[in-house]
Amino acid sequence: MSIKRSIIEGSERLNIPLSSEAVEQLATYLALLERWNRAYNLTAVRDPEDMVIRHILDSLSIWPWIEGPRVLDVGSGAGLPGIPLAIARPECTFCLLDSNGKRTRFLIQASAELRLANIEVVRSRIEDYQPTALFNTLVSRAFSTLADLLVNAGRLCAPQGRLLAMKGVFPDEELARLPPDYRLVSVYPLHIPGLDAERHLVHLTPAPASQDSRD
User: Fold this and answer.
1) Residue range(s) defining the domain that contains residue 165
2) Which among 164, 163, 162, 167 has a CA at the least distance from the CA of 200?
3) pLDDT surpassing 70 at residue 214
4) Distance from CA of residue 135 to its chain's centroid?
5) CA 200, CA 11: separation in Å to the nearest integer?
6) Residue 93 above 60 pLDDT?
7) Degrees (nearest 5) of the Cα angle 175, 160, 132?
8) Which of 31, 124, 135, 159 has the most CB atoms in a 10 Å sphere around its CB?
9) d(CA 203, CA 186)
10) Using alpha carbons only, how large is the chain's radius of gyration in Å?
11) Which CATH number is 188's domain given?
12) What is the pLDDT of residue 143?
């Protein structure tokens, strides 16, 4: 099966509408990632069909929970989930944040080759990043723990925004250590076509300020 056909069939099983242009861009992104991977080791996944499942479909699986217009991909790495989501959600602006130079060089090159005008690439540690405006949605695919994510990146989320953390197995221990100033909305099981492994999406939001803190 061709890469494009795998993307089309997988996205249909996820009930995610993709234009023919989006499919073309996703396939081009994978080809670019495969080429850069030989020199820069951006991802441990090497097989193109596995890349469709573990990178494209895994990233697109959180499509329904993305709210714009501003989305931050924390620790974007090779652009996951930010680039696939930016292709599928062109009405949103995505900031891809990573502190590693070789990764951000790839992100800049990929954005240029794919002509993605809705992507901004920032090289910075999350602790040092000072955006001009807060984000409606923060996404994280490879960040460490939920507590670390909230401590380091929570300040970047708009008061009515959402933080989306992609996890494998149900993160019981991490959920037990959430800071009190954030509220758990839900944990959603994700079913990735072709992937025989547990995946979950943790949906958090800043807790409303108490009456005492407003007085």
Assistant:
1) 3-214
2) 167
3) no
4) 13
5) 18
6) yes
7) 105
8) 135
9) 5
10) 17
11) 3.40.50.150
12) 77
Is the Cβ–Cβ distance between 192 and 53 less than 8 Å? yes
The domain tally of the chain equals: 1
70-74: strand order across its sheet: 119-123, 93-98, 70-74, 135-140, 157-167, 200-206, 182-189
Reported as a pLDDT band with limits 50, 70 and 90, residue 213 is very low
Tokens 């300020």 correspond to 209
Contacts of 142 (CB under 8 A, 6+ apart): 75, 77, 80
pLDDT in tens, 142-189: 778 999 999 999 999 999 999 999 999 999 999 999 999 999 999 999
Q: What is the dihedral of CA 185, 189, 190, 195, to 10 degrees?
A: 150
Q: How far lies 136's CA from each of 36, 40, 157, 161, in Å?
A: 31, 32, 6, 4
CB atoms closer than 10 angstroms to residue 150? 21
* Furthest CA-CA distance within the chain: 62
For residue 58, give the DSSP letter: H
Q: Determine contact, residues 80/59, Cβ cutoff 8 Å.
A: yes
Residue 71 has pLDDT above 70, yes or no: yes
Of 49-53, 139-143, 160-164, least confident by mean pLDDT is 139-143
Comparing C-alpha atoms, which of 192, 181, 188, 215 is closest to residue 203? Answer: 188
